[in-house]
# Entry
Amino acid sequence: MMNNKTRNIITFSLLAVSLILIGLGVKTGEYEAVLNKAINVCMECIGIG
Amino acid sequence: MDKKKGTIRHWFQAGWFAFTNGYFRGYTSGKIYTGNTKVLCVPGLNCYSCPGAVGACPIGALQAVIGNPSYRISLYVFGFLALFGTLFGRLICGWMCPFGLVQDLFYKIKVKGKKKNLPGHKYLKYLKYVILAIMVILLPMLILNQAGIGQPWFCEWLCPSGMLLGGIPLTILNEGFRSAIGVRFAWKLIVLLGLAGCATWFYRPFCKYLCPLGAIYGFFNKVSTYRLVIDEEKCIKCGACQRACGMDIKTWETPDSSECIRCGDCMRACPKNAISSTWCMAKEKLVSRCFVDDTETEIKENAVVTNVLFVSILAVIMGIVVIVAMVDEGLLYQYWLRYSLEGSDEIGLYAYIPPMFGLLSGGMLLFTGIYGILGRQDANKVKTLREKYRISLISGILIFVLSAVSVLIFGVDAIGGILGMNAEALGGILGVVIVPPFLMGISRILGDSMDNDGKITKKVKLFILYFFAVLFIAAVAFLVGVDLKAY
# Structure
């Protein structure tokens, strides 16, 4: 079983990695794909089309 | 008292639903919200086609990006999933998911023959991982239409949230949608009604067997900041926690099971109060969770030094990355833009200011990282638990505020399409790492002026000063950003 120290290091490393991933996603313009999908009605989601 | 705590969770679920679906005009107009906040993912399975939704569903967004010929893999959405998962784990399922609330309410209906699990639960609980791999990732990635776009298979055929929050309200409110109802609508309605019926007899069947989002957050339960703690001395292994647990988990053996949705029923059921929960930074648990090994009973001082060293090394790495990004994609890019493109002379010297702020931020990161590494032993001067708690708490708050401000300021500008601002967004987000080593640096400076009973007035004043300095810098950067946006 993981001790708490290892666990805390993993936790904070994951937090840092997640922020870096979001930053890279902004940099590569992925947010535009998300925004475009989210601001239009998703026909598949609502079972139409 | 116990019942009251359970009720609080349902009120929180309802409040969270209202918060993330607060575009009330949508419920009367039959149209969905189209504002910029939809660039951000919400933690729960909340369809973005709900008329009131103000954020994006992470599973829907994941499929949209995977199915997009330009990307095929989504760093952005995985970043959100990792962030939410690391912070909360499956606490999100128990407290922040609208369809979780719906299933909880159905389970409250009094009928005969209620059971926790479906027959075959032992194997069926792995089905959600299969759905995640196949319907959310592989099919949208591999089966493409003529334009090279993958379909969101999970949303299309299985997601009950889309039907409940999007399909039903939109078809009721909007004549156009109503006239386009077909076979797929009927199928999704059957799925929704089937799950609702199932949830009346069995506890949260969708979360247990089908939800890909729960499968993802389950991976994080062991390392999330929110955890359950078992007091081994108090626990008599009576099994009361498992009997109370809707997810049927042996809490005393696996408190961080990937199936646990952190509803808290086990804590309320324990006759010996042996189960408690903690955030990593919680005051009472700080001794046992952050500064003491499992086998030790006294405060482990070197743990602070190790933490400072770890964060400081991280700060140095981030500082170098930010400086390179600012010089390369900020300053040099602006220079190129100014002198290489015709008609770009109108872009004023303002354009250099955001990268300069980014450069300053990177420089501070690098400086404080080195400072933290050199001065790590001085962190031991912070001896009392109260001081450690205070530093940890203030670090946490500052990290949160700074990251929120950075994302808002730089993110908004990046979305606005301002050239060269993406690098600042990256720098701004990475810049949050600056805070802990900076605070430790302050501790070093004021080490001699502190006493052991927690009277650290000067330090608190400096904290406040630093906080307002950060806000001032953020405000200036925001004004510059707004000004730039005018171009």
